[in-house]
Amino acid sequence: AAGPAALSGLPRCRGMAAPPRWRGLSWEPRSRAVEQVHLRCTEGSLEWMYPARALRVVLEPNLSSAQHTTVCIKPASDFQGASIYVERAGQLHLVVSEAEGARPHHVSCFSAHTPQRVALFLQASPQRDISRRTASFQYELLSNQSPAGPDFKKMALVEAMCRPCDDLELLMAICSSDFVVKGSIRNVSHDSENHMSQVDVSAQKVYRQKNRIFQQDEASGEWRGPVRTLLQCKVKKGGGDFLFTGNEHFGEAWLGCAPRFKDFMFIYQAARERGANPCEFQLN
């Protein structure tokens, strides 16, 4: 027989140098209470070990100014022992079943009817032995997203548009993107099953990155990193240098604006001469 159910998590809050670490609660198997956890970060992760009965997770970040909010959930590859529902008007709607949790790269997104408070309900699957099961997932809350279209379109921001950025979008991208990198395309691979393409980038200059997506190869000394985009964007390998920008979702880099570097230089220098650049960018 397994021991008490347990919950642990590592919430990650944007803008915090050191994310808070917490380990939550445990309860005895005979208890019938539904435990409740409140998370106030716009992105994070939760791990429910030895799932039994039910767990209610309330996401309450400071998103009062959001017009449209989308919640995206990515189960861990070893997600077992529970299904995830979202509460809407007193009803439970299935978001991730236990069977879907085992699918690699599976991301489920849905529109939040109340941006200030989203309640998830985790229902444990009936089973005798829960000792080897863990229901863990990552979540992100995205602002100003359309509730229509495939899940990956909801998860991606500018990166889902599949069109060249205009000058203003490009100038904003270098200020607000999670990563900004000058480099060339080493290879492009396509994953039709998951509707994604991966661009392998050889980086000459890493201006900014949120996490260590781009890392230095010990043997060659070259900086490299993978960037994802939608398959429908039909990305192809091209020569020359580009400025790659974009955002990270669930630890993966998603492509945003990616002009040729010489085109970016012309646009940025012209904006700077007019005093129209929204932020300073290190050119050298």
Description:
This protein is mostly beta strands and 284 residues long. It has helices spanning 151-155, 167-176, 261-274; strands at residues 5-9, 22-27, 35-39, 43-49, 54-59, 69-75, 82-88, 91-96, 108-112, 118-124, 134-143, 179-191, 196-209, 215-216, 223-230, 242-249, 252-255. The protein has a 6-stranded antiparallel sheet. Strands 14-15-13-12-16-17 form a 6-stranded antiparallel sheet. The longest helix is centred in the last third of the chain and has 14 residues, at 261-274. The protein is elongated, with a radius of gyration of 21 Å. InterPro entries: Meteorin-like, TIMP-like_OB-fold. Belongs to the meteorin family. One of its GO terms (cellular component) is extracellular space. This is Meteorin-like protein. Keywords: Disulfide bond, Secreted, Signal.
